[in-house]
């Protein structure tokens, strides 16, 4: 695990071993005897007591140290703060405590010039990531730096947290970052020189889930990296066949989270969650078609099918969407009050390819009465008693279910890693030495 704590070297000091094992009483007693120990550091890495407590998730010890006015931003040899170590090791309790104590979220280490946000994204601790983002919204960082700038903060090699999350196969972090304004097409290169986009790095890491999230957010399959390669070629090179299939520019385009929805000032969270789920389900269907008959079978996303069927069997005919007569009405247009299903709402607002010249000019209108859509909310079932129950079912547990299966498929996608490129890419993969030559055509030799 990265530049972890070289604990063997700390054994010389009873204090540090007591901290690692979480022996609060011993630590307390030692500090009573010699208060200067709070400033003691390990010999080589110069980890302070606070670093060790944070990295090991020893929240009681950490709190005690903070109460003794230890500087929460004390740094080790690599200029890492305790906050970075908490984010690295996913110690959410310690991380929150440090933030409460005023720890600075805008510190850079000296290894890669990374912040605690980079650490959380890289190691895939989505709870820590979320906590740091929440802190950024309410802290002086938002004022001095701007929140959007913080979310897209670059490390020493030009990588924003989104790049790291995509590269390290952390779909949940990818999603949270996108939701918080991470730039989906940002390149690691700066000022006009090309670099890798998050999509290139997802292709490199071979995460189908990250690839799907990024595509749904409008990531460009045709953007080139410093070597002139599109993400498809990166996936092929690293033998991530399933990712390559999705990234192949000739494959069906995924639905993209519709930019016109940004014009609807009040998109309530539940409605947004429903629409997102409908979008991801639609994309999974497309993936199935893309991967059908290839060596890559997707872990069956049974949740969506069974979920929808349940709804239909429970619903009376009157609740069916009047546009498709297929799904249940779950979205209500306001102010007019017309209802339709999430799929049709998406179809109304979605553009397969975001078109910057058109997409932004025409906010969507209600298909029934052509009035402007002021807001979208989750449709309420008006006539029966169990309305709350229905809405609850649509709102939360299914979402959890969807999230769960998303995790599941993320595990599943790792099994693609070991597969070699096979039949669907016979032409590319089977060419043997010719393949190298083909690849070199893309490489920009300096
Ligand atoms: Zn419909
Ligand atoms: Zn209407």
From TrEMBL:
EC number, UniProt record: 2.3.2.27
Region (Disordered): 395-446
ANK repeat ranges per the UniProt record: 45-77, 78-110, 157-189, 194-226
Compositionally biased intervals (Low complexity): 407-420
Residue ranges of every copy of the RING-type domain listed in the record: 321-370
PROSITE patterns in alphabetical order: ANK_REP_REGION, ANK_REPEAT, ZF_RING_2
Keyword Transferase: yes
Pathway stated in the Swiss-Prot or TrEMBL entry: Protein modification; protein ubiquitination
Protein name: RING-type E3 ubiquitin transferase
Reaction equation(s) it catalyzes: S-ubiquitinyl-[E2 ubiquitin-conjugating enzyme]-L-cysteine + [acceptor protein]-L-lysine = [E2 ubiquitin-conjugating enzyme]-L-cysteine + N(6)-ubiquitinyl-[acceptor protein]-L-lysine
UniProt keyword NADP, yes or no: no
Record key words, sorted: ANK repeat, Metal-binding, Repeat, Transferase, Ubl conjugation pathway, Zinc, Zinc-finger
Pfam families: Ank, Ank_2, RING_XB3-XBAT31
């Amino acid at each position: 695990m990265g530049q972890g704590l070289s604990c063997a070297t700390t054994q010389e000091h009873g204090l540090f071993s007591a901290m690692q094992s979480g022996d609060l009483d011993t630590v307390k007693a030692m500090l009573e005897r010699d208060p200067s120990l709070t400033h003691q550091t390990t010999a080589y890495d110069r980890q302070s007591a606070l670093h060790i407590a944070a990295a090991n998730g020893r929240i009681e010890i950490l709190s005690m140290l903070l109460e003794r006015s230890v500087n929460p931003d004390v740094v080790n040899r690599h200029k890492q703060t305790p906050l970075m170590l908490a984010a690295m090791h996913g110690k959410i309790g310690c991380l929150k405590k440090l933030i409460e104590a005023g720890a600075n979220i805008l510190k850079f280490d000296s290894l890669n010039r990374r912040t605690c946000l980079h650490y959380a994204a890289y190691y895939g601790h989505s709870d820590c990531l979320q906590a740091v983002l929440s802190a950024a919204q309410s802290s002086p960082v938002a004022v001095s730096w701007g929140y959007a700038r913080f979310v897209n903060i670059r490390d020493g090699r030009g990588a924003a947290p989104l790049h790291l999350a995509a590269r390290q196969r952390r779909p949940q972090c990818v999603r949270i970052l996108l939701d918080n304004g991470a730039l989906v097409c940002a390149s690691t290169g700066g000022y006009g020189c090309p670099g890798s986009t998050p999509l290139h790095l997802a292709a490199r890491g071979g995460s189908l889930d990250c690839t799907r999230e990024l595509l749904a957010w409008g990531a460009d399959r045709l953007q080139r990296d410093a070597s002139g390669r599109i993400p498809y070629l990166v996936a092929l090179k690293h033998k991530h066949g399933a990712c390559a299939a999705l990234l192949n520019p000739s494959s069906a385009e995924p639905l993209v989270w519709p930019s016109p929805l940004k014009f609807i000032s009040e998109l309530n969270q539940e409605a947004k969650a429903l629409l997102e789920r409908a979008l991801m389900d639609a994309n999974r269907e497309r993936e199935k078609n893309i991967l059908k008959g290839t060596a890559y079978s997707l872990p069956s996303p049974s949740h969506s099918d069974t979920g929808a069927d349940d709804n239909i069997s429970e619903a009376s005919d009157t609740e069916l969407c009047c546009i498709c007569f297929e799904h249940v009405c779950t979205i209500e247009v306001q102010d007019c009050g017309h209802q339709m299903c999430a799929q049709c709402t998406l179809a109304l607002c979605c553009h397969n390819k975001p078109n910057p010249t058109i997409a932004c000019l025409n906010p969507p209108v209600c298909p029934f009465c052509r009035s402007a859509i002021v807001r979208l909310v989750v449709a309420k079932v008006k006539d029966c008693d169990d309305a709350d129950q229905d809405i609850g079912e649509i709102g939360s547990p299914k979402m959890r279910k969807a999230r769960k299966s998303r995790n599941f498929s993320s595990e599943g996608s790792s099994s693609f890693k070991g597969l070699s490129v096979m039949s669907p890419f016979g032409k590319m993969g089977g060419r043997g030495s010719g393949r190298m030559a083909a690849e070199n055509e893309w490489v920009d030799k300096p």
